[in-house]
Amino acid sequence: MTNQEVLELFKGLRLADIRDGMDWAGLHNVGSVDPAIGPVFQGAEAMGIAHTVLCRPTQVRIPTMPPEDYEAWVINYYETRYGDRQRITPNVTDGEFIVFESAGTRSGEIGSANSLEWHAMGARGIVTTGGARDVDEIVTHRIPVFSAHRAQTMVQGYSELVATQVPVSLNGTLVNPGDLIVANGDGVLVVPQTHFEAVAKWARRELDKDKEWRAQWYDKLGWDDSRRLL
């Protein structure tokens, strides 16, 4: 399936429906990401195809230098050791969800600049086992970012980008490139690509049942369409 075909298959389904669909498909202990990883802002939600990124701590040490030379060192480090603008941004396609296995250095591997670039390239959301920085700007941009914590530092002297489009771990949950990532206020869920059709089938059944059940109560309450969720 293409990215768009997968997204169409799951269109309109909530994370809760899809989680239920995975249980119906026998995937009870698969896919639910550590709840420590959550949305940067209330109301963030996204669905997309996993575009994975693997990072690691660096062993490069910042040399002693005059402050006026530091900028050139930073630029060189960013381009040669990290290089997300060279290695990630040009390869992002519409409908993807950027998935970071962080280096764990507490550096801000996700920020308002790179998240904006990936969003402009078609990324639906971003999730990281590490931190996000420039959080107020991310919130203003309304780009769905899901992270474990806030961060302050840049990556230079802290983190390196190792590889893209390889299997990664979200605090113990396996993500392969091409898996489906669904995220909202309930957290982050990974749907293995080998089970797309079965999960979507049962998730759709759960949603349809919920719509029918809620309709009677919406009618009883006299709620108009502005207050009905389904």
Question: Could you explain the architecture of this structure?
Answer:
With 230 residues, the chain is α/β, with parallel strands linked by helices. 35% of the residues lie in helices and 23% in strands. Strands 1, 2, 3, 4, 6, 8, 11 and 12 form an eight-stranded mixed sheet that branches. The chain has a two-stranded parallel ribbon with strand order 5-7. It has a two-stranded antiparallel sheet with strand order 9-10. Strand 3, helix 5 (112-121) and strand 4 form a beta-alpha-beta unit.
Note the topology.
Elements: H1 3-9, H2 15-24, E1 38-39, E2 46-57, H3 67-82, H4 84-87, E3 96-101, H5 112-121, E4 125-128, E5 131-132, H6 135-141, E6 145-147, E7 149-150, E8 159-164, E9 168-170, E10 173-175, E11 180-184, E12 187-191, H7 196-221
Parallel strand pairs: 2-3, 3-4, 4-6, 5-7
Antiparallel strand pairs: 1-6, 2-8, 2-11, 9-10, 11-12
Helix pairs in contact: 2-7
Describe the structure in brief.
This protein has seven helices and twelve strands. With 230 residues, it is α/β, with parallel strands linked by helices.
Please give the radius of gyration in angstroms: 20 Å
In round numbers, the mean pLDDT is 94
Overall structural class, as computed from helix and strand content, comes to alpha/beta
Overall 3D shape? elongated
Distance between the termini: 28 Å
Catalogue the unreliable spans: none
Quaternary status of these chains? Answer: single chain
Major sheet details? 8 strands, mixed
- The percent range for helix content is 25-40%
Number of helices: 7
Proportion of residues in β-strands? 15-25%
Order of helices and strands: HHEEHHEHEEHEEEEEEEH
Q: Compute the number of strand runs.
A: 12
